[in-house]
Amino acid sequence: MTLRTGHTGLNVTDLDRSLAFYRDVLGFALLAEGKEDDRRFAFLGDGGDLPVLTLWQQADDGYDGSRAGLHHLAFTADSVDRVREYETALGAAGAEFAHEGLVAHREGSASGGIFFHDPDGTRLEISVPDGAEGAPAPHASAPTCGFF
Predict the structure, then answer these.
(1) Chain centre distance of CA 71
(2) Which residues are CB-neighbours of 37 under 8 A, at least 6 positions away?
């Protein structure tokens, strides 16, 4: 048996704020949410019955990229136009971008996307496997998704 990624769980500081971001800006569907004592959580999906992303309100501080653990969470879009639509929605929501506009994964690459942070600072990417030909690469030889 080969393992595949199931869902990704993120610790968040404010579930309501994170729900608004992932549901209203990125378009994930709320599958379920709950509260037990001071513990709040939400399961988000992409139209099916299984969660893609789970949010757990149990963090005291925002994301710390200098610690071991999650580096970034990457989503794949079906076209460069769709990536640009997300970029517009994220800009309107006040998201912090790591690079200006669509960038290539490396110099000369057909793949690329946008790199940004969620409300707690978690690093996120929305990219496409092709269609980014000619987009600038922020780093000459290192993968763009590795250093932001």
Answers:
(1) 11
(2) none
